[in-house]
Amino acid sequence: MAEHTVKSFDAELETLDRYIAEMGGIAEKMLADAMDALAGMNSELAQKVVAADPRLDGLQRTVEDFAVHTIAKRQPLAVDLREIIGAIRISADLERIGDLAKNIAKRTTKIAGESRIPRSVVGLKSMHDVAATQLNDVLDAFAQRDAERARAVWKRDAELDSLEDSVFRDLLTFMMEDPRNITFCTHLLFCSKNLERVGDHTTNIAETVVYIVTGESLPVERPRGLDSASLA
């Protein structure tokens, strides 16, 4: 980050970075706990994920308020303005990732009493592993202002899309084999969509990191896997 003649401005930018780092840590833990809760059908852990969400929401509001105040006071230009706008964007994506983890946790509480086809969660674990790695990598890219690492996350978006397609096929097969599986598998389908959306938000963050560092925008068209709807 470039040095400024006003040291207090540097301190304000560093404060925004700390808020984003805290949000990233909360979002990562919520996502990991939500998957652990789903894999173990653990309602108590799922409820802890839900309870963590207000903290993430509050931090997003803090980032927005702090950023707006800083813009009004400092009237930044060029990279400094990109830093502040980027923090607002990233905080919004992290808040949404927390919402998606919370949604998975809420689904878990609805199906925790069932023990149907536990192998159906295997594909979701794979999706989570990819999504969690992408999130960790993009947060590191932001912390280091590493545009190339952010681009690498952006290019991996199709991997999660492909895994979602595989999960979709498996769950559809389970539902066709036994109609009693339909409700259970439908909840898991929503969980898989939530994980795929986590990937979309990490990709958004990657685009923002590239914008902060270079001032450039990545292509509108992202790498994509097959459309799961077409496989139905």
What does this structure look like?
The chain is an all-alpha fold. 37% of the residues are buried. It is built from seven helices and no strands.
Short description:
The chain has 232 residues and is mostly helical.
Unreliable stretches (pLDDT < 50, length at least 5) are 226-232
Mean pLDDT: 90
Summarize the amount of helix as a percent range.
over 70%
Number of domains: 1
Relative strand content = under 5%
Shape assignment: elongated
Which key features would you list for this structure?
elongated; 232 residues; mainly alpha; 7 helices; Methane Monooxygenase Hydroxylase, Chain G, domain 1
Write the layout of secondary structure elements.
Layout: H1 7-40, H2 43-74, H3 78-111, H4 122-144, H5 147-155, H6 157-177, H7 182-214
Helix pairs in contact: 1-2, 1-3, 1-4, 2-3, 3-7, 4-5, 4-6, 4-7, 5-7, 6-7
